[in-house]
Design brief:
The protein is globular, with a radius of gyration of 18 Å. Helix 1 runs parallel beside helix 6 and helix 3 crosses helix 6. The longest helix is centred in the C-terminal third of the chain and has 23 residues. The chain has 9 helices and 8 strands. The chain has an 8-stranded mixed sheet with strand order 4-3-2-1-5-8-7-6, sandwiched between helices. The chain has one domain: L-fuculose-1-phosphate Aldolase (3-Layer(aba) Sandwich). A hairpin with a 5-residue loop joins strand 3 and strand 4. The protein is 39% helix and 14% strand. The N and C termini lie close together (11 Å). It is of the alpha+beta class and 263 residues long.
Length: 263
């Protein structure tokens, strides 16, 4: 189990470093990234971000490995190079003043769903509403290029959990712990959706029930970005963007089998 973290890491660089390292170790151990994949950042001041270094094995990180950057992603202090996806983090913070943490991971089942055309925005279990709000999927873009923040930026204004087709996830939160919890809920939901597809599929939750659950969640203090409309990007790419047909149960089953030993 992940060690309990304080609810507010903003303002303390040392605490932010410790929190990032704990989360990186956790997401590696859970198979949500592999080796040097993914990146994590925490905003500790309006013009300061603590970021994982490029190419570092997330399961082996220490506090001293992390890089301090300015609001544009330029290195202020640290021996390493900032993550190759730093521009995506900068874009998230630019668009969302209410967040202090960004996690980019490669959750295998969730990525497989984007390849197989299984829409993660299709709500099949109520818990995803409490854990993630709406899960949106952005069209595929070439990793580490400027087109990534240009494409996913508008999604950040509407959604806290965004899949990049064939690439990975981005989860946003007021703390790195909150962003991690959304990542955890995302992959758990994807496993359920993929398993249901292997077993023959099933109906989504009815629209009126979805609205009731959102009202319950929000009355309990949960806060979500806009679920739909208000000039938000669509929650799923169209068929030409996905470049894949209907879900292939054999593919999903193979992915699940490969993940069988990971928790």
């Amino acid at each position: 189990m992940m060690a309990r973290m304080r609810s507010d890491v903003r303002g303390s660089e040392a605490e932010a470093r410790r929190a990032i390292v704990r989360v990186c170790h956790e997401i590696y151990q859970r198979g949500l990234i592999s080796a040097g994949d993914g990146n994590v950042s925490v905003r500790i001041a309006p013009d300061r971000l603590v970021v994982t270094p490029s190419g570092a094995h997330k399961g082996w990180l220490s506090d001293e490995d992390l890089v301090l950057c300015d609001a544009n992603g330029g290195v202020v202090r640290g021996g390493g190079k900032a993550s190759s996806e730093i521009r995506m983090h900068v874009e998230a913070y630019r668009r969302r003043q209410d967040i202090s943490a960004v996690i980019h991971a490669h959750p295998a089942t969730a990525i497989a769903c984007t390849i197989a055309g299984v829409p993660l925005s299709r709500l099949v279990v109520p818990e995803v509403i409490f854990g993630c709000g709406t899960i949106a999927t952005a069209p595929y873009t070439t990793p580490t290029t400027q087109i990534v923040p240009d494409t996913v930026g508008p999604f950040f204004e509407c959604y806290d959990v965004v899949m990049m087709a064939r690439h990975g996830s981005i989860t946003l939160g007021p703390t790195v712990e909150a962003a991690f919890m959304k990542l955890d809920a995302l992959e758990h939901t994807a496993r359920i959706a993929a398993t249901a597809m292997v077993l023959g599929g099933g109906p989504a939750l009815a629209g009126d029930e979805v609205e009731r659950i959102y009202r319950v969640a929000e009355s309990g203090g949960a806060h979500y970005r806009f679920r739909e409309g208000r000039a938000c990007p669509p929650v799923e790419p169209d068929a030409t963007d996905r470049r894949s047909g209907s879900a292939d149960a054999a593919l999903v089953e193979a992915v699940l089998a490969r993940l069988g030993g990971r928790s």
